[in-house]
Amino acid sequence: MRIFSMMFRTxxxxxxxxxxDAEGTCVAFKSCAALPGNGHWIEVECIxxxxxxxxxxxxxxIAQRA
Length: 66
Fold this sequence. Notes:
Elements: H1 2-7, E1 15-20, E2 26-32, E3 40-44
Antiparallel strand pairs: 1-2, 1-3
């Protein structure tokens, strides 16, 4: 019976976020199910390590969900 219930269990989809400082520089990354509470987090399609410590490219931003 456990196998049957595991087949229909929904998996959580993690979303990718980037933390920006006051100047728009990327200072951290996070993958989680919901928008983090503290800080200026921006949702992105995927995480790119080259953004760390550099100005965040505006084309990487995902449109805000309603």
